[in-house]
Specification:
The protein is α/β, with parallel strands linked by helices and 280 residues long. It has 9 helices and 11 strands. α1 packs parallel to α9. The longest helix is centred in the C-terminal third of the chain and has 20 residues. The radius of gyration is 19 Å and the shape is globular.
Length: 280
């Protein structure tokens, strides 16, 4: 069984990004908008800030109180859209209740939508057009590429249908000619699907939902879940699957670091498009 080293792969990509960004006189800028005081969001934003600082991306943080008027946030996004120095814009989710998430996200200019969450970005993803892929699915596909895990003709089962992970992953796996099944909270007899999976991607936020009795021998298991219990992190997959699977992404240290580094990659891509820099 091979443990997927998300930390190591992310570090390698970060060094490559740093080397390229060091060659530019004017640096990319990532603008991050937060609303309220969600503790998990604070941790994620801090991780993004550290990663940006490491590779040389300037980090602008606009931190609003939980009762800020929606119009004020939208006005700020519109300002950032017009600012050519700003390469990428993200709104850290989840937002407090009462805000129109769809309206706020879709205010972001598609060329700066480095989280890949606007309706236009999703449309481009479905139609195989050039656009930004959401960071977690992009990180998972990078893991497959790096470890030479071939998806062609394989049964890929995705558990979770969120806009952030599950839905974009369907499109990305189809691009690789996989046969894709999507399961969710209303799926009956989940085990009957997971037992057939050559590649199982689990993104539910339910601690140890999957165990060794539910998987196929020599399958590839990608654990996207992050569950905090008594200050300890657990995935959606019980570590006992190690006895049967061929690859396993651990929690922490698997998909998480890759999600952050894909945001950096998308921000650099946006910067290059805005500045007319072509890939060598």
């Amino acid at each position: 069984m091979i443990t997927i080293d998300g930390n190591g792969l992310a570090a390698k990509i970060k060094d490559e990004l740093k080397s390229e960004i060091d060659s530019y006189e004017i640096k990319p800028i990532l603008a991050v908008i937060t609303i309220g005081d969600d503790e998990s969001s604070k941790v994620y934003v801090n991780n993004k800030k550290k990663a940006c600082n490491y590779v040389g991306i300037s980090f602008l943080h606009f931190d609003y109180v939980s009762f800020v008027k929606e119009a004020e946030v939208i006005k700020k996004i519109e300002e950032l859209n017009k600012d050519n120095k700003v390469s990428g814009i993200i709104v850290q989710l989840p937002l407090p209740k009462g805000y129109d998430v769809n309206k706020i996200i879709n205010t972001i200019n598609n060329n700066k939508d480095v989280d890949g969450l606007t309706n236009e970005s999703i449309g481009k993803l479905i139609n195989k057009e050039d656009g930004f892929i959401p960071c977690t699915p992009k990180g998972i596909m990078s893991i497959f590429d790096y470890y030479k895990i071939n998806l062609e003709g394989k049964n890929v089962v995705i558990i979770g249908r969120s806009n952030l992970v599950g839905k974009p992953l369907i499109q990305e796996c189809l691009k690789k000619d996989a046969t894709v099944t999507i399961c969710h909270s209303k799926t009956s007899d989940l085990k009957s699907y997971t037992k057939k999976a050559d590649i199982l991607i689990v993104a539910t936020g339910i601690k140890h939902l999957i165990n060794k009795t539910m998987i196929k021998k020599d399958s590839v298991i990608i654990d996207v879940g992050i569950n905090k219990v008594n200050n300890k992190l657990y995935g959606d997959v019980n570590p006992n699957v190690e006895e049967k699977c061929s690859y396993l992404s651990p929690v922490p240290g698997g998909v998480g670091p890759m999600t952050v580094v894909m945001l950096l990659q998308n921000t650099l891509t946006a910067y290059k498009k805005i500045n007319g820099i072509k890939n060598e």
